[in-house]
Structure formats: C-alpha cells, structure tokens
Design brief:
alpha+beta
Length: 249
Amino acid sequence: MDILFMPSLLFTIFILQVNAVESADVVKQKKLEITPQSCLDYLKQGYTSNDFYKIYDCNARKMITVYCDMTSEPGSAWTLVMSFALKNRVIEQLSKKGFQQNAPVNENSPNFYLYRMSNSQMTYLKSQSTHWRVTCEYPKIKVDYRDYVRAKFTDFDVMTFTGFGICKKVEYVNIRGHQCAYCTSKWWQLLNRYAPHIDSTIPGGCQFDASAGAVRYEDDFGYYTTPNKKFRCTTSDLSTTNWWFGAYI
C-alpha cells in the first residue's frame, strides 16, 4: 500500500504547488490592476487628502511620485505637472519650452516653486486626464476661480498646440476679474521661444478680452515678460503659477 500510495501523494503535492503558483500570479495580477495609475484612482478609492502619492506610470512601467489635489474642485482630482515661483521664470525650461518638449526640472520631486515633469510623464498623465487647468498661488489660495483657466484636452490640447495668438476654446478663464465661460481665448506656444500663455495686452480677435487693466507686454499663466502685480501669479517674486492635468469621477 505504501508503494501504491506514494505516486498519488506526489501527484497531490505537485497539483498543490501548481495551484500555489497560479494563486500567486492571480494575486500579483489583481494587485497590479488595483494599483492607482492616477490621482483619480486614489479619489475613487476614498483618498481625499491633498498630498503626495505614488502612481504607476504604465508607459515607463514604474512608480512615480506626484502631487494630487483632491478637494479644490469637488468630484475631480488634479495632478501637478508644472509649478514655479515668478522669480524662477528666468529658467528656460519654465519660460521658453513648450509642453511638446522634454524640459524637466526636479521631475522626481514635485513642489510648487521649481518643478516640471518630463515630457513622458506629462504624456502619461494626459492619457489619464480629460482636462487641464492653471491656478495662481495654489499653496495659499487653493481655487476660487480668479486668475484661473481650465480646458478640455479634446477642445484645446496644450500638449500638442503650437501657435502665435491663436483663439482656443476653454471651459472657463479669469484674468484680473475679466472672465468668460465656454469661450475662445488667445494663446501662444512656440518651441524654444514661448511656454504656453495668454498675452493680455493684445485686444480683439477672440471672445475673451482682458486688455482693460493690462500692463504693457503682460503675459498671463506663463512666459511673463512684464509682470502685472494685479494678476495673482505675478504679484511678487514668490507668487506661483501651477499647471495641472485632471479628470472627473
């Protein structure tokens, strides 16, 4: 009986080992499937704190650290992709490099005063997002929709746009109290020349016009040749401009 029993026992152990390997693979696969790949994934899992999070970049096949805003606009999550203090506008990657270009600054250390993701990181985040926005002085004010702009990628893809004073559709824009919703505003972005921005000194041509109260050569949301102290992003050398990609539940 012992001789007859041994093959059966060995076969049973073999089956158990195979099942154990399969179970481990299933667990690994399930773990991969629930690993957050965006700030929105964290929000859907019940995380509601504005903080630094780890997400899985499927393109790079690695975890990256990002800053997530979960609270400023209910029902949405936003990832910081670029942010800088006005005094740092002299850095070329922040003032003269379009989003089509790879011009990272502290890409592995998100912060509000000197930060820009790599182009590959931005491209991945865009794949997880429906909208982009720009805020001013987020660390102090969060979002109250003054000196703010938001657009859908399907209406205005800031990652691929190249142009000089082109009217582009946005969901909402406010500059120094001038505002409009679901309208066109005039944008600039040129390789090695202009980071994306609005030039408020040039009136007409688009639905949105913030020329009243503008200073000469005023740029808003980026580039910043002549800062206007009445625009929050350029009130002082420590004022911050914050670019985000995001999506809604």
